[in-house]
Structure formats: structure tokens, C-alpha cells
Amino acid sequence: MNRKKLDVFFKYLFGGVSLVSVAALGTILLFVATQGATPFFLPTAPDIRLVTERIPEIAVNGRVYRDHIGFIAVPKDAKSVSARFAGKDGEKVLSFEITPKETPEFTEYEGGTLSNPETFVYTVTYPGSVAGLSQKVHIIMPEPAYSLPAFLTGLDWRPAYNKVYGILPMIIGTLLVSLGAIILGLPVAILCSLFLSEFMPEKPAAVVRSCIEILAGIPSVVYGFFGLMVIVPRVKELFHTPSGNGLFSASLVLAVMILPTVIAIGETSLRAVPLSNREASLALGASRMQTAWFVVLPHAHSGVIAGIILGISRAVGETMAVILVAGNSSQIPRGLGDSVRTLTATIALEMGYAQGRHSEMLFSIGVTLFALILGLNGFILWMRRRTED
Fold first, then answer.
1. pTM value?
2. Total of domains in the chain
3. What is residue 72's three-state secondary structure?
4. With helix as H, strand as E and coil as C, how does 278-331 read?
5. Same domain assignment for residues 242 and 285
6. Contact 322, 224 (CB under 8 A)
7. Interacting residues of 349 by C-beta distance below 8 A, sequence separation 6+
């Protein structure tokens, strides 16, 4: 094949693959952003919904439903709802007015018992023809759009009963756990990088470098299990708490997890510094430590900062290891031994059973996490530009 045609072929092939990749990534981001923004602009449903139990036939506002599966939607323009069905001792009538405050005003449910099992849900229970098989009508009111400030600054997370979605304790928990991992891990990682590149002989350094690469490939759940079995009991003894699962344990596990990434990238960047810079420093009378700290490290700061950014991103976005050792209590920690819950842990723990507004709020947490990582990385890059100026 002609070389020119081959070059053109690969040019269009790589361009097409890149375009598809960008389109797929953009679609994913758009989907997550849309799902995350929905609860702050739209209610959960456009109308009121009724769900029946053990009622084979029911007439709602004059329309008859026989052996209906799923929910019965009440038209938007309806001002009231009237339901009739056959009960144990004759026909039952359930009626209520639709009020502007999203709270139904019940006018008739004779023979039934009204309960409010959870916010925006009302249940009227009637005795069934057989003991223990009661007839029920569930009235599900649409949840209005949620307040974004209440979401970001709320202190309570109770999605199942009260429909309260406040993630401030999770944001603080995520930042504190990540900050702890950075404080504990970054100095060690930078010093290890300097030692490997500047002081350790090549052959032993190659062995250590291979071990670090192996550590980077260990699954996070293994780190979490190690923390649960080794670190958590020691932290329990150290802080004299009922459980060692908490802020310090999570920070320590994450500090260990980010070490391989930061060390590998930092050491590669340090080795890329030209040998002439080292020789010039040594020729001026500087020691090897002074050369490594004041000459080599500043010249490799771009690569080191890239490793720090990747390490911070992994710490903020880590899930499984944090779930195992953090305690997962949605509260603002007041001490190193207190239980915390991160944003990623909330998504992983609740996505399997979340429905409706609860599921949408988990997508909102994902968008918040994405914005948090962008903000932290942007702050680091801004600080780097400031130091360069």
C-alpha cells in the first residue's frame, strides 16, 4: 500500500476514534449533569398517583380500573379525588381535596385508618374480607423541586422518611479525609521520590520502583480490608473509642493508597531533570541534599504537581476503601476518631435501592463531587502559577 495513503488512512482512523471518545465522554457528562440538575428544577411527578393493594376494582373520579397494575395517575386539572371500591362491609368511598401546599385535605374515608408512613405519602387502610389481608390505597404526592442551598448546606440526610437531602457533612467529611491523606502522604511521597532518583543506586532503585508499581495496581478494596483488619484496631486503642472506624483511619488508608501514584510520577519527573543542572550545583559547592532539594525538585515541579493532582483526585474519589474504614455516619466530625461519610461512599451505599428523588439526588452528589475535584485541581494549578510568577 502507498505510504501516503496509509498515513491518510491512519489520520482519519485516529481522528474518528478521538471523535467517538470525545462524544461518548460528553454524552456521559451531559447525562449525569442533567440527572443531577433535575431535582432542583422539576417535581418528582406531574400529578398525584394512587396505588392500591388487594382492591380488584376501583373507580377514581368516575373512571373504573379493574385488576390495575402500577399507579393510577390523577389528571392535572382535577381539584379533588374520589375513589369508590367494594370493601368488607359494602362500598367504600375515599375522597380528598388537592391543596396548593402539596398536602391532601381528606374529606371522607369512613371505615378506614389514615396514616402518613413517609413524607409525601399517605395510606388509607380498610379491613379486608380475610383477617390480615387489609385493603389499602396509597396516595403519593409529587415532591416539589428541592432547594439547591438546602442541598449544599443542609446538615441532615434522611432520604427514606423525611425526604431531607443535606450533604454538608459529607462535603466536610470528604475534604477532611482527603486533607488528612495529603498531610500524611505527600511529604513521604516527595521524600521517597527524591531518595529514589538522587541517592539510591540504580539497581536497588529499579527493584523498589517495580514494587511501587505493583502497589499502584492493588485493588482499593484490598487496601480497605488491610485498614479494617490492621489500622482500625490500632486507632481504636489510640483514641479509646468504641470503634476505630473514623476520620483518622480513612485518612491513613488513603495516604497509603496515594503514595504509589505520587512517588512514581514524581520520581520520573525528577529523573528527567538534566544532569548538567546537578553538576553545576555540585561544582558551586552545594551538597547532594541541597542540590536535590533546591535545584532538582524546583526544576521538576510541573511533574511533581501533576502527581500531586492525581493523588488528590484519587483520594477524593476513592470509594471502597473509605466505606470499610470511615464508619459512614453522616455527621460533621469533631475529632480524629469520629465516624465520617464521604460523597462517594453515599453513592455506593445507596444507589442499589434508591428510587425517584433519592436516585436523582445521588446523581447530584456525583455532580458536586466532580465540581469539588475540579475546584481542588484548579486551586493547585493557580497556586503553581502564583509561585512561578
1. 0.85
2. 2
3. strand
4. HHHHHHCCCCHHHHHHHHHHHHCHHHHHHHHHHHHHHHHHCCHHHHHHCECCCC
5. yes
6. yes
7. 323, 328
Examine residue 337 and state whether it is found in any structural domain, yes or no: yes
Q: What is the CATH number of the domain that holds 310?
A: 1.10.3720.10
Residue 59 sits in the same domain as residue 102: yes
Q: Do residues 117 and 241 share a domain?
A: no
Q: Residues 100-126: pLDDT tens digits?
A: 766 788 888 888 899 988 888 999 999
For the four alpha carbons of 271, 273, 279 and 285, in that order, the dihedral sign comes to negative
As a whole number of angstroms, the distance between CA 299 and CA 294 comes to: 9
Taking residues 237-252, what's their average pLDDT? Answer: 87
Does 273 share its domain with 383? Answer: yes
Q: Are residues 132 and 172 in the same domain?
A: no
Place of cell 395510606: 123
Burial of residue 183 (CB within 10 Å: 0-12, 13-18, 19+) is exposed
CA-closest candidate to residue 111, choices 132, 130, 86, 81: 86
**Do residues 358 and 162 make contact, with C-beta atoms less than 8 angstroms apart?**
no
Q: Domain check: are 130 and 217 in the same one? A: no
